[in-house]
Amino acid sequence: MTDIYRKLYTSSMMPSINLPKHYNYIGAFLSLSCNLSCSYCINHLVGLDQRRKHLSGAEWVEGLNRIQTEGPLPISLQGGEPSIHKGFIEILNGLRKDLNVDLLTNLQFDPHKFMDLVDPERFKRDLPYPSIRVSYHPETMDLAETVNKVKILHDNGYSIGLFTVAHPDALEYIPAAEQACEENGILFKTKEFLGEHNGKLHGTYHYEGSVFSKEVKTVNCKTSELLISPEGHIYRCHHDLYNKITPVGHILDPKFQIDDIFRECTYFGKCNPCDVKRKNNRFQNFGHCSVEIQDIE
Ligand code: SF4
Ligand code: SF4
After folding, report:
1. Model-level pTM?
2. For residue 240, what is the enclosing H or E element?
3. N or C: lower Cβ tally within 10 Å for the chain?
4. How far is CA 68 from the centre of its chain?
5. So what CATH class is 2-197+225-259?
6. What is the average pLDDT value for the chain, to the nearest integer?
């Protein structure tokens, strides 16, 4: 599909994609593969990469540079692990300077090489949380090594912090991580675990019965997020993106514009926790939910 678009349009001709004012998140899933394998990985709900095709670095740059936002809404490069994409550096350096960029990473790369290639200014923006959010997974990562890498980037001017999921099996490791960050002047935060553990559902969800339910219902649903899969398809929610269900467009389709509408969905009950959890919006106000769901009967 992308080849056809390329024959018709050069990048300078690609029309802008204007985000509705209420949009709160832009997620570019560069790859759903990862260089680690955490047992509680939310991507395991459907399998990590499902042999997906990947947009090239140049295609990501072309597609993401179409995005126009009001205010400082960043494009979050994420996955899986976004840094394993072959065009990772090309994407970071090719995006328009007026676009804000965040990075969600497990930081398995060499921070010194990264600093040689990407300016800390790339991650500067006016929001009350770090642009580079490093996930610390005690099961698969070494704390001292991770904190040391974060400190190197932090001390060289990168907006960065360490985050960990408060998974029941990881709780015992949190105090040490918190202390190590405090000693090194690094922001540390825990995130709520979303999912089932030993038969108990964890997480705070906006819609009762929306996750891990035996029953599915037909509802109408509207999103406040632009979610782009590794192959460039745009989905209305994480559930659809992970399961490759009903993409609503493609980032390299010159005709694509956001339809800010409710769409019928027959999967309520199997929603992905990321879509229906209560969380902070980009201004760090709690209570936001990514989707608005109507007609739950
Ligand atoms: S680092 Fe993140 S994406 Fe990779 S396996 Fe662990 S939880 Fe999953
Ligand atoms: S109801 Fe759930 S699965 Fe359906 S579109 Fe909304 S968030 Fe996605």
Report:
1. 0.93
2. helix 238-243
3. C
4. 18
5. alpha beta
6. 92
